[in-house]
Amino acid sequence: MNKILQTLHDSLPVWTADWLDIFVPAVEVLLIGLFAWLVMRFARHLTRRLTTTYALPVKLSELFLRVIGFVVYGGASLWALERMGVSGAVLWTAFTGFATVGAVAFFAAWSVLSNLFCALLIFITRPFRVGDVVEVVEGGEKEGVKGRVVDINLVYTTLLESGDEHGGVSLQLPNTLFFQRIVRRWHGTVPDGH
């Protein structure tokens, strides 16, 4: 194919040869995109047919299509970039660099992200509310941290351990702690004057 293009390139006037260098890769990229679209259309049709024939869960077929879409469109993107002259080594270097930075950032922010996620779970599942008295215990009957919940924010849950909000002792516990330990919640009369 390259010999045909080279012969065509050599036989054309100079001003059209420059356009040919742009036109051919553009057509190749369009054909790669069309091919990827057709493969995904076939995959959707096949998945729909298999789902109805064998009564497969819809969520499973959606997950399958997402994975296939990632592979097909990712491969088509890499193939298109290669046809436009981007080196595979450059792409791999860029990918590994971004992945490394992303992994470092993820691990650096892991505790904050886990506290945010646990705050979301606290707001959704409502294991306790502001005003409830809770105790976070290490295990069994061993005494733990106890107090009245006065605030729940995205990172911490604040417990008033003793006194009142103006002259007492409060504790800020990370939200993840409520999912890593046993939480005792009092209903009705609270022991120890809380």
TrEMBL record:
Record membrane topology: Multi-pass membrane protein
Presence of the UniProt keyword Nuclease in the record: no
Protein location: Cell inner membrane; Membrane
InterPro entries: LSM_dom_sf, MscS_archaea/bacteria_type, MscS_beta-dom_sf, MscS_channel_2nd
Keyword Iron-sulfur part of the UniProt annotation: no
Main location: membrane
Domain of life: Bacteria
Domain spans labelled Mechanosensitive ion channel MscS: 112-179
Keywords on record: Cell inner membrane, Cell membrane, Ion channel, Ion transport, Membrane, Transmembrane, Transmembrane helix, Transport
TM regions (residue ranges): 22-43, 63-81, 101-124
Subunit structure comment from the entry: Homoheptamer.
Task of the protein: Mechanosensitive channel that participates in the regulation of osmotic pressure changes within the cell, opening in response to stretch forces in the membrane lipid bilayer, without the need for other proteins. Contributes to normal resistance to hypoosmotic shock. Forms an ion channel of 1.0 nanosiemens conductance with a slight preference for anions.
Family per record: Belongs to the MscS (TC 1.A.23) family.
Protein name per its UniProtKB record: Small-conductance mechanosensitive channel
Organism this protein belongs to: Roseateles agri
